[in-house]
Automatic annotation (TrEMBL):
<keyword id="KW-0813">Transport</keyword>
<feature type="transmembrane region" description="Helical">
    <location>
        <begin position="54"/>
        <end position="76"/>
    </location>
</feature>
<dbReference type="GO" id="GO:0065002">
    <property type="term" value="P:intracellular protein transmembrane transport"/>
</dbReference>
<dbReference type="GO" id="GO:0005886">
    <property type="term" value="C:plasma membrane"/>
</dbReference>
<keyword id="KW-1133">Transmembrane helix</keyword>
<keyword id="KW-0653">Protein transport</keyword>
<dbReference type="GO" id="GO:0015450">
    <property type="term" value="F:protein-transporting ATPase activity"/>
</dbReference>
<keyword id="KW-0811">Translocation</keyword>
<dbReference type="Pfam" id="PF03840">
    <property type="entry name" value="SecG"/>
</dbReference>
<dbReference type="GO" id="GO:0009306">
    <property type="term" value="P:protein secretion"/>
</dbReference>
<comment type="function">
    <text>Involved in protein export. Participates in an early event of protein translocation.</text>
</comment>
<keyword id="KW-1003">Cell membrane</keyword>
<keyword id="KW-0812">Transmembrane</keyword>
<dbReference type="InterPro" id="IPR004692">
    <property type="entry name" value="SecG"/>
</dbReference>
<comment type="similarity">
    <text>Belongs to the SecG family.</text>
</comment>
<protein>
    <recommendedName>
        <fullName>Protein-export membrane protein SecG</fullName>
    </recommendedName>
</protein>
<keyword id="KW-0472">Membrane</keyword>
Length: 138
């Protein structure tokens, strides 16, 4: 299934590039001043009317291939049955409660006291505002 999907994507990208190239290569009617004086066919590779017919048909064929590839991608993506999933969290298992020394103590006995902590430094006095600054609400 994956091989077909990749093959259809490659066909679709190639047909899209072909459409872009063919549309950019086509000359519109009256595209340059030479076309107004009848010299529009002189630089044409396929003749006066052959160029527009060949390019138009090639663009139509590339567009049809692109359309068919789009329908094929739609069909292939709907046929891939994955079932309803809640996402990556469905694959997570419930945690196992820890027992032994790593468990959270549940009894009222306190754990061993840590080594003596250094005495806390006295808190510095907060600066007090005076004058107009004291009247500003905080």
């Amino acid at each position: 299934m994956s091989t077909w999907f990749n093959l259809v994507i490659v066909v679709q990208v190639l047909s899209a590039l072909a459409i872009i190239g063919l549309v950019l290569l086509q000359h519109g009617k009256g595209a340059d001043m030479g076309a107004a004086f009848g010299s529009g066919a002189s630089g044409s590779l396929f003749g006066a009317t052959g160029s527009s017919n060949f390019m138009s048909k090639s663009t139509g064929i590339a567009a049809a291939i692109f359309f068919i590839a789009t329908l094929a991608l739609s069909y292939l993506s709907t046929q891939h049955n994955t079932g309803v999933s809640g996402g990556v969290m469905d694959k997570v298992s419930a945690p196992v409660p820890a027992t032994g020394a790593g468990a959270i103590p549940t009894s009222a006995t306190p754990a061993a006291a840590p080594a003596a902590a250094p005495a806390a430094a006295p808190a510095a006095a907060a600066p007090t505002a005076s004058g107009a600054a004291a009247s500003i609400p905080k």
